[in-house]
What does this fold into?
Amino acid sequence: MVLRKLALAAGLAAFALYLWGLLHVLGALIQAEDGGANSSPILPCRTTNGEEGGPVDPRALDVVDYSVDFVPLRFVCEQTGGGSYATDTVPGYVNPAVFGLTLAALGSWVATLVVAPPGPRGVRGPGG
It folds into this structure.
């Protein structure tokens, strides 16, 4: 029973952290789609920390498009000539923590199956 609760807690924590990272990516998407003055190069690609007024990234001059990777979760700036780089829009702890918590959840779930297989215990079938 404890392992099932641990698996559930680790799974929920991994899901919550993934959503937290997804919110950061959504914020970068909103900034990237914002047209008008001061929209080129794309703001999340322009600065190294993804925030206005941050240190300027010299690679931003070659940015032509952007994409989102969902595993690992990141905002990717695509450059002319086929190159690309990931911004640090998503906090650095999100992807490793989601990976570790997912492994913990899966490990705990497998352990519950090994330790206590599903089904009623102590009940004998017909003829037993």
About this structure: DSSP finds three helices and three strands in the chain. The mean pLDDT is 86. The first helix runs from residue 2 to 33. The two ends are 27 Å apart (CA to CA).
